[in-house]
Amino acid sequence: MSAPKGDFSQGKVSGLILRLGLPIMLAELVHVLYNIVDRMYIGHMENGGTEALTGLGVCFPLITLIGAFANLCSTGGSTLSTIARGQGDNDRAERIMCSAFTFLLIVGGILSVLLFAAAPALLRLLGGNETSLPYALPYFQIYVLGTIPVLISLGMNPFINAQGFPRVGMVTVILGAALNIGLDPLFIYALDMGVRGAALATVLSQLASALWVLRFLTGRRPIVRLRRLGIDGTQLKNVVKLGLTGFTFKVTNSVTQAIVNVMLKAWGGPLDQLYIGGMSLINSMREIMSLPLSGVTTAGQSVMSFNYGAKRYSRVSESIRFILLGGLSINTFMWLLVMLIPAPLVRIFTEDEALISLTVRCARIFFGAFPFMALQVTGQNTFVALNYPKHALFFSLLRKIFLVAPLTLLLPGIGLGVEGVFWAEFVSQLVGSTACFTTMYFVIWRKMREEAIGIRQ
Questions:
Q1: Environment class of 44 (CB within 10 Å of its CB; exposed 0-12, middle 13-18, buried 19+)
Q2: How confident is the model at residue 5 (pLDDT cuts 50, 70, 90)?
Q3: Are the CB atoms for 313 and 455 separated by under 8 Å?
Q4: Residue 164 dihedral angles phi and psi, to the nearest 5°
Q5: pLDDT of residue 457
Q6: Can you give the pLDDT at residue 116?
Q7: How far apart are CA 195 and CA 188, in angstroms?
Q8: Cα–Cα distances in Å, from 91 out to 97, 223, 235, 248?
Q9: Which residues contact 457 (CB under 8 A, 6 or more apart)?
Q10: Could you state, in order of their start, the residue ranges of all structural domains in the chain?
Q11: How far is the C-alpha of 246 from the C-alpha of 141, rounded, in Å?
């Protein structure tokens, strides 16, 4: 007999992860299109394409910040809900999900008002000038009006995947991305709306995804359903405590992106805006390169959480091993692409030869230690999946706040110039990832294997 839907305690672990992970991976790929399709269309505009692309780069820290609040609920909420299901407590799993959803609605409303009002000052602080602000400001102010749909689609879709419905979760993202791809050329070119059209297309697409998520989670198919609004204080406290990992990861990305933009503006000289545009393209490349491993780790996290709740420790250990080996293989392949043929990847977004040349040079530095990110992702996701919030939070802070941010400020001034900004990422990938994985091995993995052996005996 086949295992019930959402029961990850049976079947081959690698098969389960791949079955869940492939649809999630495809969904992640399509989700990235929300961001990169805008950049592709905008970067190829006849008038002001490079300046508009730089304007979007100025917006990145704030867009990342919005996504951080989705992670606050999705990372902690879906993990704790899955552990509760593994323990057979579906009622608690449902209270966790309903609390997370209600909290997202409240946060979304507050963020919409604050970010819309503060956008002009924030964008100028993040590196915008008279060239890029005319593109950055209208794009971001329209984008921020869709904050609640963005938070629902990003924050609640993991609850669908974690219950064993990865294809439904995939449709969530494909639906929005298909609309975005179709609406972008209509609004940007046909209606001559430029960056405003790109932002409007993204907002409408995210709204469609959010409605799909709500339709499914309030229906009859899910194991855990969204039946009501309301916050269970105890459950929300635990969700936020564990979710601080995903939240911190995004917030630290936002902070470091802001510092990077400021340092590129300070050290880039007459090419400062070109460097900011180049970093925008590098971030786009990073999103694409991170996709395959992201799908595997998201699926593996659900499998680990369920089996941890069910005390099937050998399956937890097997999940960690599969994610590690798969991650190293995937990231090494992606690293080779960037080292050997970066120019074709960059040309997806722009035809500006000066921007292409600069981005290619800096990308080889930025991604120099990319294979090591498999260690970071394996360690980080294991800490989250097994509810080790303190460790997960520390290593979220370590790489970005304790390594990238100080190095970004330091390296340009000790002889590396503007390229020191890109070397900061290289060093952080090498050092931070190794520290995270080594700690996970001694704190969790070795212990997990010993417990599995003890149970078998």
A1: middle
A2: low
A3: yes
A4: 90, 25
A5: 47
A6: 92
A7: 7
A8: 10, 10, 12, 29
A9: none
A10: 13-456
A11: 25
Instruction: Report the C-alpha gap between 388 and 75 in whole angstroms.
Output: 12
Question: Which residue in 278, 273, 261, 252 sits closest to 366, CA to CA?
Answer: 278
Phi, psi of 167 (to 5 degrees): -70, -35
Helix/strand/coil percent split, the chain, to 5? 85, 0, 15
The predicted pLDDT at position 46 comes to 63
Q: Which of 53, 66, 61 is nearest to 123 (CA)?
A: 61
Q: Residue 251's pLDDT is what?
A: 77
pLDDT > 90? residue 437: yes
> Per-residue DSSP letters for 394-445?
HHHHIIIIIIIHHHHHHGGGGTTGGGHHHHHHHHHHHHHHHHHHHHHIIIII
Burial class (CB in 10 A: 0-12, 13-18, 19+), 242: buried
CA distances from 109 to 149, 153, 158, 204, 359 (A): 10, 15, 21, 17, 37
CA distance 437 to 361: 29
Q: Residue 127 — left, alpha, or beta (φ > 0 → left; ψ -120 to 50 → alpha)?
A: left
Distance CA 225, CA 97 (A): 8
DSSP class of residue 270? Answer: G
- Short-list 57, 228, 193, 192, CA closest to 129: 57
Residue 231 tokens read as 């916050």
Query: Residue 225 to residues 19, 158, 370, 448: CA-CA distances in angstroms?
Result: 23, 13, 39, 32
Q: What is the pLDDT of residue 408?
A: 93
Q: Give the pLDDT confidence of 272-297 residue by residue, as tens digits.
A: 878 888 887 888 788 778 877 877 88
Are the beta carbons of 236 and 98 closer than 8 angstroms?
no
Mean pLDDT of 347-355: 81
Phi–psi pair at 15, nearest 5 degrees: -65, -40
pTM check: above 0.70: no
Closest to 163 (Cα-Cα) out of 225, 100, 87, 70:
225
Model confidence pLDDT, tens digit, residues 158-211? 888 888 787 888 788 788 878 888 888 888 887 878 778 888 988 898 899 899
- Rounded to whole angstroms, the Cα distance separating 82 from 367 reads 34
Give the per-residue pLDDT at 35.
62
Rounded Cα distance, 143 and 132, in Å? 17
Alpha helices, DSSP H, located in 46-127: 49-86, 90-125
Is the pLDDT assigned to residue 49 strictly greater than 50?
Answer: yes
